[in-house]
Amino acid sequence: MNSRAFHPPNQPVGQNIFLNWLLVHKFGVTHLYNRIVIPMTTEVTAGIKVSVETFYQPAHSNPAHSHFVFAYRISISNESSDTIRLKKRHWYIVDSDNSRREVEGEGVVGEQPFIAPGETYRYVSGCNLNTEVGKMFGTYLMEKVTDQKFFYVKIPEFKMVVPCRLN
Which one of 26, 75, 80, 155 is most buried, by most CB atoms within 10 A? Predict the structure, then answer.
């Protein structure tokens, strides 16, 4: 599977063939009705731009049992002059009742991608919450390939909101 698939920036998520395939085969999503996209958030650290887009997954959620599932799409653009490699991730997940979780691990979606100058790496993942509103933020540990120096890149805070809560 090539997670570097191109996604035109102004094209709705539901019209992207690769993303639809990924949602169906990785998350079992069969339709994208009642989906809402929260405005994209972006952060730049040391020439690495991280953008996040989220959307609610009603078909996988069970509000009666306080189970709310969200998917998020991350774009990591290398605007620096060095090739980098994403080594680790560290997430903070916060529900609106202020319960907190931390998730750490190697790479993202089973990969530790190399990102050359001017390239963008994209992936889709998901998160479940116990409340209708929550947020995530964190860091990636990156390595500059040329000198094996490590540095952190900030993942911007982004909201996950069940559509009915926006009214």
Answer: 155
Q: What is the pTM of this model?
A: 0.76
d(Cα 46, Cα 82) in Å, to the nearest integer? Answer: 11
Rounded CA separation 40/124 (Å): 14
- 102 forms beta bridges with 92
- 12-43 pLDDT per residue, tens: 444 444 544 544 444 444 444 444 445 689 99
Q: Rounded distance, CA 47 to CA 15, Å?
A: 30
CATH fold, domain 13-166, is Immunoglobulin-like (2.60.40)
Residues 167, 138: contact at Cβ < 8 Å?
Answer: no
CA distance linking residue 14 with residue 16, whole number of Å: 6
